[in-house]
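Aim 2, interim progress: modelling of the Z2T-bound target.
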Amino acid sequence: MEWLVYSVGKDARAATRRDWFHTVALAVRDRVVDRWMDTTRSYYHEDAKRVYYLSLEFLIGRLLTNSLSNLGIMDECRQALDRLGLSMEDVVDAEPDAALGNGGLGRLAACFLDSMASQGLPGYGYGIRYEFGLFEQRFENGWQVEYPEQWLQFGNPWEFARPEVLYPVQFYGRVEEFRDSVGERAYRWVDADRVLAMAYDTPVVGYGGETINTLRLWSARATRDFNFGHFNDGAYMKAVEQKILSENLSRVLYPNDATETGKELRLKQEYFFTSASLQDILRRYLQHHTSFDNLPNKAAIQLNDTHPAIGIAELMRLLVDQHALRWDNAWEITRATFAYTNHTLLPEALEAWPVRMIERVLPRHMQIIYEINAKFLNRTKAKAAGDNARLSRLSLIDERGERRVRMGNLAFLGSHHVNGVSALHTDLMKQTVFHDFHEEFPDRINNKTNGITPRRWLKQANPALSELITTRIGQGWISDLSQISALSEKAEDVVFREEFRRAKRKNKKRLAAYIARQTGEEVLVDSIFDVQVKRMHEYKRQLLNVLHTIALYNEMRDNPTVSWVPVTKIFAGKAAPSYHMAKLIIKLINDVAKVVNHDPSVHDNLKVVLLPNYNVTAAEIIIPAADLSEQISTAGMEASGTGNMKLALNGALTIGTLDGANVEIREHVGADNIFIFGMTADEVNDLRASGGFNPREVIASNPSLKRALDMISTGAFSPDDRNRYHPIVQALTDGGDHFLVTADFADYCRAQDAAMQLYRDQEEWTRKAILNTANMGWFSSDRTVNEYAEEIWDVHPVHPNHDGEGFR
Ligand code: Z2T
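Predicted structure of the complex, ligand included:
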């Protein structure tokens, strides 16, 4: 109560739910600060090797439940609120969802922060404090409309502004050559614009509260130069305008998940946070060291995709230009410090900045990139004389068309390890994008299959199942998920199966209420909750699911006397605002929902819902309630997937292709407990290479597919605009069906039938669901992070001293 009065400045009668959220968050934060300082101080005193996770995205979601749960004070807090007549749920619901990321890549970064802190690893996250996170999605007339996501509008109780942690970051200008004190050629970057990067720190509470790490996000501030000197009116207003423009750097997250826009502001964002982070890392290192030789023994820098890859040129610049190291020495240190994670093979998502743009925005970096390239190609030329095609593939510069810098090649060359995010993806990296580099550096590529944190994705999101698990096997699974395998034998226990079903049913009721609130649709709790939640993208094939939905709808209408297993098709996901096809697919799902849900002839046996504004908070409600998990991307295209892991851990059975981590999920849960269908990545590759795939033939030979497509194309779902879906039908037919939707349709329907038949046998279904939960232990991000720590970073746990006296 005192907290409310003194920190929020209100008395209890005037307090809103948001005020209570801020009150509770500030009280929780107070419990964290001492341990946070202890942790930081322990790292400092031990001069521990730290790992720095550089990521343009951190998809955190809400933090209140997470903090309370990891600190072990959930019940205490609930009781305190009870005494005030307040509901915990209401307070929790008042927190905005921090959506500083697009999807898998950003959420992976957030899971890694949780896992590093939970295992006592000295890990820092570095990124951008976007004022606007990923847009809020609404449906207007069934179409996606984007609204700004104003998560900071009412303040952020978790962050600490550090106005004293401020670094200059430069853009534009030119490079001057001069002779240094020993007469060597040297360079300086002059006449550049300056922006300041200001730090905001958020404590990352590890499970048990022993370790509290730091997420440091940078915010752009104008330099105060314009306050000095004399201005006439015009110059003054120009200077103020300049200030506003430079602060746009940290204004908004780019909403593209797997396509790059090549916009200058995006390049500037990447350099902005990377430069500030490197300056901060070097400052911390120099507190203990006078030479840079030990940098690789004290700092591991992980590049989350190529977004921070300009850091390789930046570290070279800092070492060579500012600290006067010799090139070869600086390069050795740089390579020993950086490692790079690749998250996609999609060609349109591989960053390639125009040389002309980098020359203009970062002139010194362009020189450094040329120098790195020249030295590398010269060395390679000596070995592979004559093979010019190979050399041009290895080059950092793509010379076909407008000259561009291949950021993936730069990241590869400047790193000591390069990893993919699932076994299949890593293999494909070696065969495709990095084929030549892999030949050149056969030990550099390694696999680190993604994982998810069991704290957020099981303990917090699914209290019903978590409590059940803990009553049977204790709570060791929370910090060591491999222990969950002890549930396997419980799959044979009829009482346990009953309780497992009860937990699932409770979650389904919660989701049904959420669906009713969000869409007005009533769904049957006893239907199969068939869930596809992820970004909207053609390669993820929401269309395949829609086509099956329409085919099932037709079958149900044709055979009204059959006793159908009721199905609820649940979709959620955002489309990039400029991705017209993905937005059209959203409209199609909404149009199909409208027709199916209001057709009395299917007797409520089929419902279709598309939930708006999918984010971490929505995922926490949807995932624990799922029966069937749709992981149906075209094989070879989904690098890993992580939603697949969250759903299986929560006892959903997967229907999926042999893509990304689905392959490893099958190995762990067993082929009998997963519905695999469709072409393999090799088959996809062969079919595309043969050029012989003809969707028209496939469609003609499959009446149910033909009927579904005909309905879409003749306007059965869009009577107000019968041509609306022409682009979709076109893509699936004359367009050549690049994602092989039609090719996999028949086998997908077979797998769907198998799932529906199995669902009739609730005991058998539950047995398999339990075996999924029990066998997903390996997919904990604790395991993933440990692999990085041991095989890439060489960092080790530190146990913070919380005695108080020793250090103070
Ligand atoms: C993203 O979420 C992913 C890859 C990207 O490539 C970009 C973004 Cl924003 C540049 C996803 C992959 O699509 C997904 O398969 C993977 O599980 C996830 O990254 C984490 O590795």
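The chain has a mean pLDDT of 96. The longest strand covers residues 193-205.
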